[in-house]
Amino acid sequence: MTDRQANSPNIRDVFSENLKILVNRKQSISQVTRDLGLNRTQFSRYLSGTAYPRPDVLDKICKYFDVDGRIMLEPLANLAKSPEEIFVDTLDISPFMNKMKGFDHARAPDGLYQWIQPTHLSRGNVNISLWHLFTLPNGYKALKASVPTYIAKASGLSCLWKDRKQPGIIFQNSGGFTTLLSSHYNSLLFMSYFTYGYRGIANIYTGFTAVSQSAGPTQSQAQPSMLKRIQPNFAAAIKARRECGVKKMEELPEFEREYFETWSPFAPGYKL
């Protein structure tokens, strides 16, 4: 910033008004100047807008009031928002919200689902866990899942439910839906895409799950996955819960096993 810019009436006015607000939050002007080690008369000139502090003094003032250099350019009220809030205000998320609002709940009803996917911890096996899909009061579709206990143990992570839980949201697609899960362990995101009615079976959804970071050089970041809707009764829920964990691929029904064995991330006929 040039001396001419620093001495412009507009910047001095903005800074002085912001400084007055900040000082009013403290005990007194005398207390502020003592804490800052500044001359009371000179500080009063900052408050009146007749003078502007040197860069080193401005830095001291900003640190004292826990603000940044924008106090010389923008009214203090505009600086109250966090960077995250500013980002949300400027980001147009309406397309995503519309896909959440228009969810076809009849084709993916609320309730328990089994999520099945090959596990990278042991070849030839699949991991089975439970997902709970539910509708929020605003009509949006959401889900709750959790990191399987055996994966948490194998990874040296906490096995407590509060640490393993994975909240998620669901978006409508033309032929299915997309889920987005977060992790309490780290910054990983899990995105799954499912299509309706595998082989005409309404309660089975097939697709793939992609993770934002690979767990190792031998693990693919995208793998086939399947959702199976559990009948809404207590006996079916208990049975589904008992089936959770690691299971040999060969123990799956033939049509389920065939899906995992023939899955490819590329369209049929695609050649590299």
Task: Explain the overall architecture.
Residues 36-72 form the HTH cro/C1-type domain. Pfam families: HTH_26 (PF13443). The chain has 272 residues and is of the alpha+beta class. It folds into 2 domains: 3-84, lambda repressor-like DNA-binding domains (434 Repressor (Amino-terminal Domain)); 96-262. 34% of the residues lie in helices and 25% in strands. It is built from 11 helices and 9 strands. The chain has helices at residues 3-6, 9-24, 29-36, 40-48, 55-65, 83-90, 94-101, 149-154, 161-164, 234-242, 254-262; strands at 111-118, 125-135, 141-146, 165-172, 176-182, 189-195, 204-211, 222-229, 245-248. Strands 1-2-3-4-5-6-7-8 form an 8-stranded antiparallel β-barrel.
Write the topology of this structure:
Layout: H1 3-6, H2 9-24, H3 29-36, H4 40-48, H5 55-65, H6 83-90, H7 94-101, E1 111-118, E2 125-135, E3 141-146, H8 149-154, H9 161-164, E4 165-172, E5 176-182, E6 189-195, E7 204-211, E8 222-229, H10 234-242, E9 245-248, H11 254-262
Antiparallel strand pairs: 1-2, 1-8, 2-3, 2-9, 3-4, 4-5, 5-6, 6-7, 7-8
Briefly, what is this?
GO terms for molecular function: DNA binding. This protein has 11 helices and 9 strands. It is 34% helix and 25% strand.
